[in-house]
């Protein structure tokens, strides 16, 4: 994957202003956007997905221009060929597992189709061992199963990259370790490029072939150990990470 991000956006709420100024390029299959809470990770991922429009700049993915303020290009999210995994998975509580996965294929937001029998849906139900849960609602399955449903929904459209917003944040420590391993294997098996955001050094270590360190809305180019040494909200273990 070649990802080229160079964006600027000013966000205002009341008297507070947040300046997002993010610039990086990567040819890695596994990019981690790493930084403390409030550093601009989610905003950056949303801009790549088309869920947030920058004021200026460009975003290019594998030769396709997703956004370019000078050229007046701003592809809608569904034309960007990226799958997005939300932090809380954002499954529809009233749709069962099969319907949630099929929703990835649907453009009908207000009345998703009840015709959920597509080969692609069955493929991902099988691949994630979810067939026996196809008729369960999200509230009736475990946290790990919910994550697999959300991944299946993101993958069913055959995206050219997967964007993951803190995929392990909501999980207890044991499940976290387990799903780390599952996602690691899944990425290697499918060879799907991914951009994962986290404030957890262990996520960055496992998935960060290329680590983009954000701080106060901008990329921090200092070596990671130095960069975090004055950040009281990051654990000391983050000093153990060596940028690759
Ligand atoms: N719509 C908005 N209007 C104004 N400020 C915003 C808006 N959305 C986000 N911000 C601010 O932008 C900053 C970065 O937000 P962002 O969600 O990208 O942080 P983050 O690095 O993903 O943090 P976390 O790890 O806690 O999710 C925060 O200070 C936030 O308050």
TrEMBL record:
Cite the GO molecular-function annotations of the record.
ATP binding; ATP hydrolysis activity
Q: Does the keyword Nucleotide-binding apply?
A: yes
Q: Give the record's keywords alphabetically.
A: ATP-binding, Cell membrane, Membrane, Nucleotide-binding, Transport
Keyword match Membrane: yes
SUPFAM superfamilies reported for this sequence? P-loop containing nucleoside triphosphate hydrolases
| Record-linked Pfam families | ABC_tran
PANTHER family to which the protein is assigned, alphabetical: SPERMIDINE/PUTRESCINE IMPORT ATP-BINDING PROTEIN POTA (PTHR42781), SPERMIDINE_PUTRESCINE IMPORT ATP-BINDING PROTEIN POTA (PTHR42781:SF4)
What name appears for this protein in its UniProt entry?
ATP-binding cassette domain-containing protein
């Amino acid at each position: 994957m070649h990802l080229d991000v160079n964006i600027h956006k000013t966000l205002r709420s009341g008297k507070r202003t947040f300046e997002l100024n993010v610039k990086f390029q990567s040819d890695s299959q596994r990019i981690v956007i790493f930084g403390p809470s409030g550093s601009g990770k989610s905003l950056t991922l949303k801009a790549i997905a088309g869920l947030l429009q920058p004021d200026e700049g460009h975003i290019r993915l594998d030769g396709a221009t997703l956004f370019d303020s000078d050229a007046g290009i701003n592809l809608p999210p569904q034309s960007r060929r990226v799958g997005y995994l939300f932090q809380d998975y954002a499954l529809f509580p009233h749709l069962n597992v099969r319907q949630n996965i099929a929703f990835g294929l649907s453009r009908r937001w207000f009345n998703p189709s009840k015709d959920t029998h597509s080969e692609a849906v069955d493929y991902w139900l099988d691949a994630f061992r979810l067939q026996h849960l196809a008729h369960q609602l999200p509230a009736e399955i475990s946290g790990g199963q919910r994550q697999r449903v959300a991944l299946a929904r993101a993958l069913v459209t055959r995206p050219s990259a997967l964007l993951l917003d803190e995929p392990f944040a909501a999980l207890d420590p044991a499940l976290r370790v387990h799903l780390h391993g599952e996602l690691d294997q899944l990425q290697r098996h499918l060879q799907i490029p991914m951009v994962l955001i986290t404030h957890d050094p262990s996520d960055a270590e496992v998935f960060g072939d290329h680590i983009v360190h954000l701080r106060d809305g901008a990329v921090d180019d200092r070596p990671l150990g130095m960069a975090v040494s004055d950040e009281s909200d990051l654990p000391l273990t983050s000093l153990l990470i060596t940028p690759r």
